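Example 4.3 (complexes with small molecules)
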Amino acid sequence: MKQPLTIYWFRRDLRLIDNVGLYEALKGDNPVLPIFIFDSEILDKLPEDDARVTFIHQTLQNMQSTLQKKHHSSMALFHGKPLDIFKNLVDTYDIGSVYTNHDYEPYAKTRDEKVASFLNDNHIELKTFKDQVVFEKDDIVKGDGTPYMVYTPYMKLWKATFRTLDFKSFPSELILKNLISNTDLPHLSLSDIGFIKSHQEIKPYLVTPSLIQNYEATRNFPSQDSTSKLGPHLRFGTVSIRKIVKKAIAEKNDIFWQELIWREFFTQILWHFPHTQNDSFKTKYDRIEWRNNENEYKAWCEGKTGYPLVDAGMRQLNETGFMHNRVRMLVGSFLCKHLLIDWRWGEAYFAEKLHDYDMASNVGNWQWVAGCGVDAAPYFRIFNPTTQIQKFDKDLNYIKQWVPDFQELTYPLPIVDHKFARERCLETYKAALN
Ligand code: FAD
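Answer. The structure with flavin-adenine dinucleotide bound is encoded below.
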């Protein structure tokens, strides 16, 4: 007789501490086998030196080493299609149940439905939990039960509901002794999954009391580099959102807290409206006649538009996998409005390059920038790429850092005249929306 066990499936929650699904699995009667699947459906689309894959692999190695050294246990790593991996696991082990945390992206929802149905056919339950956000799905909805499509009332109800919460903790780290004792489970190197180590690094986040207190005053100035860099950590779950929200509240800084709520706002939008992955939320905007000039797109990607703040942002992204939020808004507006290139092209480029890429936040923000999303910027708000410098990089420190050649003769002339582009954009948008 094989010993019955519980499987815990790690995905976007790569930590042993304060992990809801892991905690619930460990509380049960059976020993827990932790697994991670390098999903070939996702990995096959990525470049071989993808920094996010290096980060995931390194994080798993660190977790593995903690499990081996401190808990005489281990995690099993697999590479392939999740359904195929589960077929093998069901043949190998006597599985009582499988635990995991919710994932709200359209692909993940379909994948999980398929896995749940296969497990169900084998009399195994897939038990899933909310961990990635404080509020999900229909937790925060309007009085009539429909989702909020405007941020401010959503944010107000989010805060009001939060105040009534009994903020439970999920100390998975205290019961890791309930993991299976086996330090010899399948391991995988980066090359086993077809990748090489990236030269870009995902750095630790920084959420100190002073960062939160100064956030409002400094967050708009890219040269100050004063934001938390939480993005990839929230994306891959190397930090618990509950811990970060508690810190934000302790410092009584509403603005930082509200940024975290934007993340949850967009997460619930994508969950309620999965088609917005590809389609504009405001359908009329899909009538816009984008110019989609490939050479201009290339110049934008490479940071060679001749507008120094736009180019600085794109070069920062290309070199580091990060771009400051203020500059993301400008480069996004520039692509959609000055160049009339479809927001989906920009979204795709960010998806490839951003270390903190998250479909809900990326699609939500791109649609905001293009004017076609929920609670979006009005279409006639067109950032002026030159006056933005006066406002946010007056001393040119950010520009000098990323575009040292901006005063040289070799630096490109502006790809398009601002005034002309602005008029063209207004005409094109008006024609589509009337
Ligand atoms: P901080 O300023 O320290 O904020 C803390 C956290 O709050 C962030 O890590 C993030 O989780 C959340 N947050 C802050 N601003 C936003 C926002 N506008 N929308 C949603 N969440 C927010 N953020 C992503 O996490 N992934 C993306 O793929 C992404 N794509 C974007 C695309 C465009 C065109 C724009 C304009 C913004 C995008 N953002 C995205 C939002 C924002 O730019 C980043 O979250 C932020 O710059 C990350 O840096 P940080 O972690 O230092 O953020």
